[in-house]
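S1.2 Input.
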Amino acid sequence: MNDKYCVIGNPIAHSKSPDIHAAFARQTGQDIAYERCLAPLDGFAATVRRLVAEGYRGANVTVPFKLEAAALATRLAERARLAGAVNTLAFVDGEIVGDNTDGPGLVADIVRNAQTPLAGKRVLLLGAGGAVRGVMLPILREGPSNIVIVNRTRATADALVAHFAGQLAHPGQLVAANVDDIDGAFDVVINGTSASLASALPPVPGSAFCQGTLAFDMMYGKMPSPFMDFAARHGALVRDGLGMLVEQAAEAFAIWRGVRPATGDILAQMRSQL
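S1.3 Output.
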């Protein structure tokens, strides 16, 4: 009998996770079943407890339950604790272990797939919400020279800097700034705002980009986002978040099964289906 996993969300019908994990299972020879699970907005904890009782081995968690998943977990990985959000649950020896694979997924896509190192680089992060908080520790662990966070509400960016103060390699590695204070071009610019969902451009000056800058949008779609179009017009190389989606799934699969699948062919397959 194959091991059972699922992705929990509301809504959930759009999720590509079952296709991705089915492909991982075929590639690695793992005997798993993976499905979508629609949880009531007021019933996430009850849904997880039902899955545990039914013998599921783990679950991915998506909108709007990542914060609830962190609160429900009986044990948290460090990156999940600092993120304050969980997107991967493992049901192990009576415990609900929470992790966050978004950051490793983003780093893997930038460093390995886009072949853009983060070590020693200047990084600009747009946004200071849950998406950015979830990727911060893995980015810091890559050793960028400095990270500048710009957010519409400066106080939120300042709070994020304070939250990660104990993780810095040196003072000043992580700072908050107003968009008007951005000085010069960056090696990597990451859009972690929700602007692309509304087909809008987040606040960012064209001077943040130059030839060779990697402009990375955490969102993805069939067409480039306004952020990607704007960055490309200013000389940047652009990349959307589809690779991050596949890579974070691979990290979750490795947590559950102890083997990390190759992602190249599956990413190409997902791209062709947009």
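S1.4 Remarks. The chain is about 35% helix and 20% strand.
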